[in-house]
Specification:
The chain is an alpha+beta fold. The protein has 8 helices and 7 strands. The strands form 2 sheets. The protein has a 5-stranded mixed β-sheet. A two-stranded antiparallel ribbon has the order 6-7. A hairpin with an 8-residue loop joins β1 and β2. α2 packs antiparallel against α6. The longest helix has 16 residues.
């Protein structure tokens, strides 16, 4: 299989980047995009050139580290599929594939295809934690959770924090990401202690680094965990809940 790879090269955050063209005639349809980059790096290393820097870890669609932009779409052509599970069989023989970092002002480029997604971590640090009593483990049924609530919480907890929703959004919003965390924790009794403060703290952190949500919906189309667009409602809901309860107290 013959593939032309147009890949972004950028030595560092303060350096100017550029696209670099590579012709490959030994690719295979069953290769994932990460395996294609591995194969390309082997050729670059053998020729004495610097390999392309990119992130990856589990390569099973779990960790979220592998996200890049493929032909102007976060992760690649297949909807709701992470980069590591995108394969060359989705492209025709002789195709030209453009690979670049996730594009967002909140994600500065570190090198080549690697971006700094610390802005997402700051949203989590602001309130995505729960209080637990130290000491012996509580009884399993000490905090009962209905089956329906548990299943719904798990659905929203599936977010892998890849950042594709931010890169897909015209405004660079991260409301799908933050909303999934807020919804997940609001459904569980363990998160009740911080619920009020969490809504305001995470929303403030969200607004500090990311743009406003205009409900375009591109975020849900690229999310590997298929977090529903309804998650974004939790951002305003939880923040407003904090404000109203504060006025009543």
């Amino acid at each position: 299989m013959r593939i032309t790879v147009e890949v972004w090269r950028q030595p560092g955050p303060a350096e100017r980047g550029r696209f670099e063209l590579h012709e490959m005639d030994d690719a295979a349809p069953e290769m994932s995009l990460l395996e294609l980059l591995d194969h390309l790096n082997e050729h670059l290393t053998e020729s004495g050139s610097a390999p392309i820097a990119f992130d990856s870890d589990c390569r099973e669609g779990i960790c979220g580290a592998c996200g890049i932009t493929v032909d102007d779409r976060p992760h690649g052509p297949r909807a709701n599929t992470p980069t590591c599970r995108q394969h060359l069989r989705s492209f025709r023989d002789g195709a030209r594939i453009r690979l670049e970092p996730l594009r967002s002002g909140a994600f500065p480029v570190v090198r080549d295809l690697v971006v700094d997604r610390s802005a997402l971590d700051r949203v989590l640090e602001a309130g995505a934690y729960v209080s637990v009593n130290a000491g012996t483990a509580p009884d399993a049924d000490a905090l009962p959770v209905s089956h329906q609530s548990a299943e719904e919480a798990l659905d929203y907890a599936a977010c892998i924090g890849c950042g594709a929703c931010v890169a897909a959004c015209p405004n660079g919003a991260a409301h799908l990401f933050a909303g999934s965390k807020l919804t997940h924790l609001s459904l569980l009794a363990q998160g009740a202690v911080e619920r009020g403060r969490r809504g305001r703290a995470m929303t403030d952190a969200l607004e500090a680094d990311f743009g406003p949500c205009s409900t375009y919906g591109e975020c849900a189309a690229v999310c590997p965990a298929e977090i529903p667009l309804t998650a974004i409602a939790a951002v305003n809901k939880e923040s407003m809940r904090f404000s109203l309860r504060r006025k009543q107290s």
